[in-house]
Each structure stands twice: as structure tokens, then as C-alpha cells.
Amino acid sequence: MCIRDRDRYLTMLKFLFLLCTALLTNGLSLRKPEAANQCLRWTLTENEITEARGNVKRKDIKLYTTHNSASILIDGINYMKALYDDIELAGQGDFIHAKMFDQNADVMLIPNASDAISSRKTSVYNVLGRALKRGVTVRILANINIMQSYKAIEFCLRINLLCGYTCCGLDNRHPGIITGNLHTKMWIVKHGKDTIVYNGGMDVASGRWDTQKHDFSLEHQMNGDFMGHNAMHDQMVRITGPAVVDYERHFYERWNDPHPSFFPFVWLQGYKWSPPPFIRTKNEGLQIQIMRTLSCTGAKYGYYKDFAPKGEFTALAGIVKMAKLAKNYIYMEDQFFNFPEPMKAIADALPHLNAVIIVTDSQDSPTSFKNERWHLQYEAMAQLLEDKEQMHKVHIFNLYRNDVENDYIYIHTKMFMADDEYMITGSYGMERAGLTSDNEIGGGFCDPEGKFVLEHRRKLWAEHLLLKEDDPRPVSYTHLTLPTKAQVQISVVA
């Protein structure tokens, strides 16, 4: 049954104006945390992390770091331009490390429909080629399994020819040779005395470049589409500060994992650990805690034995803890929402919340396993509607372009936030594979000054509701005059 017909999920349209008014004026514009240690209440403790690792302590990565800075890059246009700029700054003695689920060497980071030649110069292939000529060391781990092999093999062959050695490794050191995934989307770029990390939901691959207008522009078409989608909403976080050491440590451990790959022709030259340089913020800055999924099945195969011999499920533990601690609202963007366990934690939290707001994909997309996706999402989300006294707090939306009939915007974001104080974002969504099986990494972000999450939530809502980022009005789309070429329309799934 199509998600649009699942009226058990939905509130009536008349509630939307009240929802937006309450949340934007009284609910989401929250007080500033009273003290810096306000962030600690969201943080997984050492004992919680140990429990999420099969009672094995995590020694390779810090409990959390402070003095970090981060910016959220919404949509491909902003992410890929920033990545391009950072890679172009890398020179002799610097490095570029990347982990990717999907890949395309011909994707242009800065496409320009009026200048095809300049656009091609910004392709992944050409950008990495120039970096190698400047003396930059490149190391890439590309996901491969039997079901998804051709693109990864082609990509790595081309990049390895540029390098002259195996700088791009086909990595199947995950639980499933057939369908398991290295699902991480992460770039680490060292240039000079600083190191930049990009982490989130977006691969540099076909169909990911898009704008806030989601208007299927010529530039978008230059980079192809993703499984038939003409519009995609996603985000990446750009991080500087002490946290980059933890992200790089994770890459180092995965690259140097001694267990051989299933593909015998892949051989990675190990490298010695050296903490990358970083620039600290002068004030306390953002607190960031690394969260991962490293499956226990993969550990049984012999992977991660040097750093997670029984696997790690801090990604799941972090989402569940956030749900338990939220006092006002939980706002989430994700493509699936089909894993019952974390959805049960959110359902249990409804009595002490004002609202749960979900923006998700309709599961009506032209992808395989459509019926299975419908069923799994329905099964998980139905838990939010079981308590008839609390179900009015649940609001579930899809995004659509209002200038094209039935043209939805594919939601690929992996982001969960609470109370304008805390946000989790990374490569994993709220699905079983991302929280139990695939190789994933993300972070929990908290700002002692109470601005980071608030500002990001307002940016997201501004894009979805066709507002300027600084617009203070509590606006429902039913009371909004949409411009002729409106980029998106937030729509109740009905």
C-alpha cells in the first residue's frame, strides 16, 4: 500500500499551521543551555559505548572532543564547491583520504552549463589528477559487493592509473559479499596546517549535485541522475578542529585492517599513524562525539579485530539516547525510517515531547524492492500512532516541487535533532542495515552556546517552506504565497 494512503500516519492539514506556530514561536526557539556541560547529558558515556561494543572498551577514539567548528552544507551545490576548494589547496606533503559508497570519476564538482570545458576541469578525475601532480597523497576506499561492482571497479582502475599504484582500494571488508556495504561518505583533506573532514549522506556520484531550487537545472543534468530521481535533498557537514583526528583514525584503521579483501587483486600499502594537524577554536566551540556501525558479523569474519573485535553499535545507541532525553521536539530527515527499534524509542518518548516531525521519502521512488520498503517503513512508523492520546504530536511529510505535477524530491538526508540543542548526522539513516550491518560513521553535535543546531534547523525549514533563512515568521505552507517557480512544497503524506 502506498505511503500516501496510510492515513494512520497522518495529522489533518488544519493542524499544520498550529504546529508551525507553536514550534517556531514557543517550542523550537529554545532557551540557551545553562552551562557548557549541558552538552554532556546528550553524550554517550564510556560505559554506554563499551556496552555498544560487546563490552569492549573503545580506546582508539576519544569519548568526545571540544573546540571544533563545523558548517552544514545543504544540497550538492554547496558541498561539492567546498570540497573542490579544499582539495585545490592541498599540496606537497598533504593528503586526501576518502571512503565512498557510490562513485563516478566524471562527476563535476562545479558544473556550468555555459562552459563545458571549465566544468570538466572540476571532475573528480581531473581534480584528483591535479592534486597528485602537486605531490598530494591520495587514498580511497570504494565500496564493492557482488551486486554493486562494475562502477567501483571502473572508478578505482581509472584512479589507480592516475596514481601509478593502488591508491583506490575496492573494499568489501563488511558483513555481506553479496549485498553488504561500506556505506560511509567521508572525505578528509589535509592542506598545510589544517585538516578538513566532510561526513554525511552525500557521495560524489551521479545525481547528487543539486540546488536549493531542485529544479532539474542544466547543471544538474550534466552530472546525471540517481536511479531516476530528478531532485535530491541531502547534506554534508564540514568539520575542523580536534575531531578530525578521530575521523582520520577511523580511516587509518579501516585502510590498515589486516584482513584481506575478498578481491585478491586488491592490495593496500599500509601507512604509519600520525595525527593530522588541526586548528582549534578559541572558545569551547562544538562538542563532537564519533558514532559508528561496525557489525558483529563482520567482526566474526575477522574484520576490525585491532579496534572493534566485537563490532560497534554506537550509532544506534546515540539515536536511542537522544530520544530518551529530548524534552520538546525531535526533528528527523531520512530516506527510510524502517527500523523498528529506534522508532520504538521515539514512540516511547512521545509523552514528554511536544512534537515529532519527520521528513522522509515517499518510498514511491523508481527503485527496486519498492513493496518491501513500503512494508518495512509502515511497520516501523506505525508504532508512533499506537497511542491515540499521543498520535496528534506526530507529523510526517514528503517534499514535492510545486511547479511539476507529482515530482517529489528524493530525501537522502541522514539527520536527527532534538530541542535545538543536539544533532546527530552522518552516513547512516534509521534503517536496519545502517544501524546494524553496514560500515558507517557519523557524529553527535552540541553547541554550548545553543546556536548551531537552532541555526541549522531554521536553514532546513527555510528551504522546505520557501522562506529566507532569517525569516522569523511562524509560517504554514497553507498560508504561504508560493512564487511561480517555487523550489519545494512541504506536503503532508496523505
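Next protein, fold it too.
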Amino acid sequence: CLSEERRIVYVGKIEEGTLKSDLRSRFETFGPILDISLHFRERGENYGFLTFEHMEDAKRAIEHGNDRPKEAGGNTNYPRYELCFGGRRNFCREDYCDLDDVEDAPSGGHVGFDELLRKAIETKRR
């Protein structure tokens, strides 16, 4: 659902050692945060997702999340993040189908990948 995805904010370029509490204290000024996930990669950029209670709060966080608060003053260590809506569709450039939504095999039998894929394609065409 698009409104669900618009409550999720992607936070990119997270520095090593950043904690969930760091992100919460920085972004909760925009509204209640329901969930925070951090993803640290061995190579490449670290990133995370913030799930806000309200879509409007997520939008404000994206628009103003890199604004330097007055209390930061001349602090040059104030991190600047990549911010955008972070729903699953934002990160999937291809059309996709939810394979969990495909009916199980009759009488509890095993469904192979090819059969599962065929059913997903059929479901998508409807």
C-alpha cells in the first residue's frame, strides 16, 4: 500500500558506529517513530529505515532531516544523510509479485519454484 510506504524513510550514508538511538534522537522531532532498522555493509554504504507513525511526519523528516538544529551550532561533525521515501517499491526497479500471496499446493504437497513462478505470473496478469 502506497500510504504505508510513505511512512518509511530511507536514510543513506550512515556512518559506522551510528546507533538506533542516534537516529531516533535526530528524527523524532518530526513525529513518533515506530521502528528503526540499521544495515551495515562490509563494503559500500550503510543505510537504514525509519518508520513513522504518520505519513506527514515522514515527509517533514525527508524535507528537513538535514537542517542543522541551532544546538548543533558550528559542529562540523553533524552528519548529512541521503533521505527519501523508503518503501519496498522504491528499491525494486523491476515489477515484482508477492510470492507469499500464491495459493499453496493442494493437499499440502510441495510446490517447486517453476510452479510457484507460473502461479505468480498468472496472479499478476489478473
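About the second fold: The chain has four helices and four strands.
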